[in-house]
Amino acid sequence: MMNELIERFMDQLEEGLRIGRNAQIRPPAGGINHIYVAGLGGSGIGADFVASFIQEECKLPFLVRKGYSVPAFVGPSTLAIASSYSGNTEETLISYDKMKVQGARLIVVASGGKLIDAAKADGNDFIQVPGNWPSPRACLGYSVAAQLAVLQHLGYISDRCLNEMEAAVAMLRNEAASIREQARDIAGKLHKKIPIIYIEDRMEPVAVRLRQQINENSKALCWHHVIPEMNHNELVGWTEANKDLVVLYLRNEDDYARNAVRMDINKKIIGKYAGEIIEAYSKGSNMIEKSLYLVHLGDWISWELSVRRNVDALEVNVIDYLKGELAKV
After folding, report:
1. Nearest Cα to 139, choosing from 147, 62, 153?
2. Residue 196 in contact with residue 234, Cβ under 8 Å?
3. CB 159 within 8 Å of CB 151
4. Tens digit of each residue's pLDDT (9 = 90 or more) over 57-88
5. Which stretch of DSSP H or E encloses residue 307?
6. Where on the phi/psi map is residue 70: left (φ > 0), alpha (ψ -120 to 50), or beta?
7. Does residue 103 fall inside a structural domain?
8. Cβ of 190: how many Cβ atoms within 10 Å?
9. pLDDT at 124
């Protein structure tokens, strides 16, 4: 059951940190000018979180691509991470081959599959995470911890991020009961509605994660946008009352002051048209703790919605059908 996997999130973070810290990653032979990650779904969102966590420390550009193509700039001066929990994601395998041809310094993060086999055959470093989890989207902790560990081993970041993730585990355990209670309340307000998620731009991965979890776990559509960008476009779209639209603002006490003011003004404007406006504030003393708090809250919201909608949160039959049809071509 997905709820059992969500309950194990803190255990997974701890295990991911232990695996990452014990990994053997060789320094690149030549100079590295940028970092590039290929990954999709639950593995791709892990890279998005890493990008947000390291933005104030890492001196190198950190780029994430979710698809088949690989930019021409990826080459010998690129540290390229291929991330796929299953190790069999079609797009990531194709990207791996392209990055290999273009001469990138490749590192793999996976639980097994063809990607680990390729890394071993090609002599590339890899971090192999446990493969006994039935849902890749429930393995965010492994993905984030492994990728941060790679950067820490190679000296592109300090051990701050790993230490803050460790502290986040204790915080989440202390807040577990209140997170569950808050998730039930929010899910009740989102049930039979279309959720719209707004968040400050620096924390967009949190909103993306919640949107994806509602899509997969709750079997429902929703959308998200970020402040301040949505003030330059989407805000103008709020012109008609629709009680089926419920807006969830994910906020932090330390949001940039101008963004906090924008959100307050936005609430006045959108409140005239939306069925309801909900605010959820993070807890924690740094960006990593705040992000993981909201991630855990969002995961529980998606589970509570799945219960109310009477759907199987683990089931992804339509994705399996898509993969089956692709295999025929």
Report:
1. 147
2. no
3. no
4. 999 999 999 999 999 999 999 999 999 999 99
5. helix 287-309
6. beta
7. yes
8. 24
9. 97
**198 token code pair:** 């707004």
Residues 33, 121 within the same domain: yes
Instruction: Name residue 208's amino acid.
Output: V
Does any domain span residue 146? yes
Q: Domains in the chain: how many in total?
A: 2
∠ CA 243-249-250, nearest 5°, is 150
What is the rounded CA–CA span in Å between residue 138 and residue 135? 5
Domain span at residue 13 reads 2-158
State the DSSP H helix or E strand holding residue 187, giving kind and residue range, or none if neither: helix 160-190
- Beta strands at 105-110 and 62-65: parallel, antiparallel or unpaired: unpaired
Q: What is the pTM of this model?
A: 0.96
- Are 127 and 195 in a shared domain? no
Cα–Cα dist 294/288, whole Å: 10
Residue 325 lies in a domain: no
For the annotated catalytic residues, the residue numbers are: 216, 232, 323
pLDDT of res. 132: 85
Structure tokens at 18: 């232990």
3-state SS track over 180-225: HHHHHHHHHHHCCCEEEEEEEHHHHHHHHHHHHHHHHCCCCCCEEE
DSSP calls for 72-120: TT-STTEEEEEEESSS--HHHHHHHHHHHHTT-EEEEEESSHHHHHHHH
**Do 137 and 240 share a domain, yes or no?**
no
Half-sphere exposure of 106 (CA within 13 A, CB side): 26
In this predicted structure, which of 3-7, 133-137, 288-292, 314-318 has the lowest mean pLDDT?
133-137
Please state whether the peptide bond connecting residue 61 to the residue before it is cis, i.e. omega within 30 degrees of 0.
no
CATH of residue 73: 3.40.50.10490
Looking at the predicted structure, is the pLDDT value of residue 200 above 90? yes
- Residue 319: inside a domain: no
Name, in order, each residue with C-beta under 8 angstroms of 268's C-beta and a sequence gap of 6 or more.
none
Q: In DSSP terms, which residues pair with 120 in a beta bridge?
A: none
Taking residue 175's Cβ as centre, other Cβ atoms within 10 Å add up to 16
Q: Radius of gyration over alpha carbons of the chain, in Å?
A: 20
Residue pLDDT, tens place only, 277-287: 999 999 999 99
